[in-house]
Specification:
This protein is mainly α. The protein has one domain. About 75% of the residues lie in helices and about 0% in strands. The protein is built from 4 helices and no strands. Helix 2 crosses helix 3 and helix 3 packs antiparallel against helix 4. It is elongated, with a radius of gyration of 18 Å. The mean pLDDT is about 85. Keywords: Membrane, Transmembrane, Transmembrane helix. It comes from Dyadobacter subterraneus. This is Phospholipase_D-nuclease N-terminal.
Length: about 80
């Protein structure tokens, strides 16, 4: 059974607006509040973009805590 050309074209032409760009992924990882704001802004219209921003922000929080601890303990003292 073959897929129709319309279905194949629809799967190939994925909505690019629903993908979080690499720039914003890195920014939301480095600065978690920006990731949370991107999530709140895009959660209804672009759910995949919002989920990526939230995931990046949540991953960035422990990294920031660990980086702050290392900076305070070993570098600044």
């Amino acid at each position: 059974m073959e897929k129709s050309p319309v279905i194949i074209k629809a799967t190939l032409m994925k909505d690019k607006k629903d993908d979080l760009s690499r720039f914003w992924f890195i920014i939301s990882n480095a600065l978690p509040p920006i990731g949370f704001l991107l999530y709140l802004r895009h959660r209804k219209q672009y759910p995949n973009k919002a989920k990526s921003a939230l995931r990046s922000a949540v991953i960035g929080v422990p990294i920031a805590i660990l980086g702050g601890y290392i900076m305070n303990t070993f570098i600044l003292c």
